[in-house]
Amino acid sequence: MAVELVYAAVDWVVAALAGRVEPGEFADRLSERLTARGDLAAVLARDERLSVFREHTARIERVETLDTWTACAVLETGSGWWEVRVALESAPPHRIREFRPRPLAADAVAWDAVAPALRELDRVESQLPGPSAARIHRLLSEAVDRGCIVGAAAALAVRGEVVHRELLGACDLVTLAPLSEQAVFRVGSVTKVVTALAVTELAERGLIDLDAPIDRHLPAPVLVPAAPGDPSPTVGQALLHQAGLTKDVLLDRTRMRHGTPLAEAAPRIRLAWAPGARAEYSNLGYQLLGEIIQSVTGEPFTEYCTRTVLARHGLTGTTLQPPGEPLRRTVTGYHASAGRLSPASAAPTHLPAAGGMTSTLPDMLTLATALGAADDPIVASALTRTAPAGPAGRRFGPGVALLDLPAGTVITRGGATEGFTAELVTSTDHSFSLALLTSKSPPDRLDALALRLAEELSTHR
Length: 461
Prior knowledge:
Layout: H1 2-17, H2 25-29, H3 32-35, H4 40-46, H5 51-55, E1 59-67, E2 70-77, E3 80-88, E4 96-103, E5 109-110, H6 111-119, E6 123-126, H7 130-147, E7 151-158, E8 161-169, E9 185-186, H8 191-204, H9 214-217, E10 222-224, H10 235-239, H11 253-257, H12 262-265, E11 268-270, H13 283-297, H14 301-310, E12 319-320, E13 334-337, E14 340-343, H15 352-355, E15 357-359, H16 361-373, H17 377-382, E16 387-388, E17 394-397, E18 400-405, E19 408-417, E20 420-427, E21 432-438, E22 440-441, H18 446-458
Parallel strand pairs: 10-11, 13-22
Antiparallel strand pairs: 1-2, 2-3, 3-4, 5-14, 6-8, 7-8, 7-21, 9-15, 12-15, 13-14, 16-17, 17-18, 18-19, 19-20, 20-21
Helix pairs in contact: 7-18, 8-13, 8-14
């Protein structure tokens, strides 16, 4: 039944891209989190990239189910090829919660053609017992091959000491330079940890009131209530993704990437629902927090967080993206689709306080370990605030998620951005932590891999 629904959703999305769907149908077929972002029908109609769907009949070459409610379709459109990923809500009526059309590069490289050379570069160091080290290596190797990952770096620690490290593949497909520990990856939403810790530090100093409305610290952009009489969202609610904001809004990303302030790009942002009514992961909420940091301190977000958060935790290989500037990295990101690889865009993110950071494997393991140890007073203070998020046992904390597992509670933080995926996991009893950095998007269940690695590691604490 699920497969039939997913395939039907793929057909509907293709029809919508071609302009064969009435605008009124969008509210019926798309989830509230998508329709709340704005008029998607109008956006699709004026997107020049998507005009190929209106000019040519798209032929679905194949559809691959990625999990129960997610599929990836490869389509031929005229002389080009596209990938369309579609995900449904698991609860009836199974509305579409996400769809991503993406053109496939004509010069994409076949994974099978490059994998043998990449495997010659793999390096594994382990202090774990042989069977455990072999299981971890097998899990990572299978994920690399299944996900067509050019470069993957993993470090696992017990009680703060590294016990297993793997550097798999290369920095890029042009030079085939092997990965080193100091290779610099984009880490996407791991940035939110830094933003959250900066906000918490300012709250501890009395410069930010977490229980005050956002507009007390940030008058613009104006946050318009979803319904008359709704309260204003607070700073603390934004930290826990409860401010009534969707994941993103329909912004002019080109202007934002060139440093246009959010208040200028979106002077008015309508909330999707009442603050506190539900938890909804929001990049936009964290960009607002970054703007609050600038407003309160009078310093650029990048400079303040570098001085007060990165330096505090010794993250010397980590860099935050200044507005409108590219990120420093030494690894090329790749988009993997249908067994083929194409270099990802190196353009800076349009929401830098939510996802504009690069880092190294040692730094990310240091950050994960600091979250688990919670011996820093700012980290400890941040983790006192949590809110339910989705399935039972999962909670949002400032910049992170907490998950109750049979072996104990872990703190997780993922980051998926153009060409890269990062995963951090740490136990709240400081018994183990791990970091996984890859030069690949989309993430395709790398979060599940990280939890599986954590499960293996927990047996050695």
